[in-house]
């Protein structure tokens, strides 16, 4: 049973995270207070949502580096709508529509026209950032209505309601990908695009919807950002695209496509946020954050690689042993 679990990178990362929390808790007991751990979960919601969307694109063998800009664009759409006196539900819908539209643009370019994903999303990243500046005049959006900011303060069993919603979205995404034929298309496309085509799978549609989901989840992240922060700077979402990719890789999503799932993206996003919080509690200078997070990412991937190689060798040895046993039985029967 343990060998099955350890082969899943998401479990390995989760295990490392628990160990780190315990160690830091021994050094600084304040770290393992319920309020601190709840704060880490709340802080992880934005990156987790972006990573969940990025996961769909990575599963198809692509990459979307515009998701951070989409998060910012969605946040701007929500903020401007709220400040214009539009109701909260309608403002949220407009924010999601901004994410959907941005994802659809990427999906059309990559999936239907055939533009390489890195080139397409690099281009649209600039377009979406530019659109933010045009809509806001380059100024921050301040004084978001208090009633919207209260959403982030709603708790359920000591954990924010937003966190429960994000967890539910992760579970639903996992069920769709693992239990439905439509969901498994993302794996098929990433694993063997030509094979998927000859199986009758609409490869272009799969790539299109992967980018749409990435846009929608990034849009959701924008909604959460506005509720948690209460204002929208022009840098909103900047740099989150690479953190989202790192979170997915930590959780076992392959950059080559076809391998991984939502729970891996969720665990990876939570892990990166935990590292940030640990560095704050240990009073490590902020400029070390990226270097340390990168070193941990590399270490986890290398450790996971060694584990996988060891299990593959063990599996081959077992298969060879079974072949020898079958041969011995056949000779005995003769």
Automatic annotation (TrEMBL):
The complex is composed of two ATP-binding proteins (LsrA), two transmembrane proteins (LsrC and LsrD) and a solute-binding protein (LsrB). InterPro entries: ABC_transp_permease. This is Autoinducer 2 import system permease protein LsrC. Keywords: Cell inner membrane, Cell membrane, Membrane, Transmembrane, Transmembrane helix, Transport. It is found in: Cell membrane. GO terms for molecular function: transmembrane transporter activity. It comes from the Bacteria. It is a multi-pass membrane protein. The keyword GTP-binding does not apply. The chain crosses the membrane at residues 12-32, 44-63, 75-102, 108-135, 156-177, 208-232, 244-267, 287-307. The lineage of its organism: Bacteria, Pseudomonadati, Spirochaetota, Spirochaetia, Spirochaetales.
């Amino acid at each position: 049973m343990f060998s099955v679990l350890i082969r899943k990178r998401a479990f390995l990362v989760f295990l490392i995270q628990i160990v780190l929390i315990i160690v830091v808790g021994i050094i600084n007991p304040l770290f393992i207070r319920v309020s601190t751990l709840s704060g880490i979960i709340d802080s992880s919601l934005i990156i987790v949502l972006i990573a969940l969307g990025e996961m769909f694109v990575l599963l198809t063998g692509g990459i979307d580096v515009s998701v951070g800009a989409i998060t910012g664009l969605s946040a701007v759409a929500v903020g401007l709508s709220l400040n214009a006196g539009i109701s909260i539900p309608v403002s949220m819908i407009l924010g999601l529509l901004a994410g959907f539209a941005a994802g659809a643009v990427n999906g059309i370019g990559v999936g239907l026209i055939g533009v390489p994903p890195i080139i397409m999303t690099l281009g649209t990243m600039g377009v979406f950032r530019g659109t933010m500046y045009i809509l806001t005049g380059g100024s921050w959006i301040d004084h978001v209505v208090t009633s919207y900011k209260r959403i982030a303060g709603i708790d359920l069993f000591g954990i924010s309601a937003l966190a429960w919603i994000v967890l539910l979205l992760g579970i639903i995404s996992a069920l769709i990908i693992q239990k439905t034929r439509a969901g498994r298309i993302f794996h098929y496309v990433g694993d063997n695009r030509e094979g998927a085509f000859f199986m009758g799978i609409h490869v272009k549609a799969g790539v299109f919807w992967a980018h749409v989901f990435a846009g929608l989840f990034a849009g959701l992240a924008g909604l959460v950002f506005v509720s948690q922060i209460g204002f929208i700077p022009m840098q909103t979402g900047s740099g989150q695209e690479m953190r989202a990719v790192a979170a997915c890789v930590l959780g076992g999503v392959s950059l080559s496509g076809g391998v991984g799932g939502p729970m891996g993206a969720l665990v990876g996003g939570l892990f990166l946020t935990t590292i940030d919080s640990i560095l704050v509690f240990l009073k490590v200078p902020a400029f070390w954050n990226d270097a340390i997070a990168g070193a941990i990412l590399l270490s986890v991937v290398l450790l996971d690689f060694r584990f996988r190689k060891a299990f593959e060798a063990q599996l081959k040895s077992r298969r060879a042993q079974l072949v020898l046993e079958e041969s011995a039985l056949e000779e005995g029967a003769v």
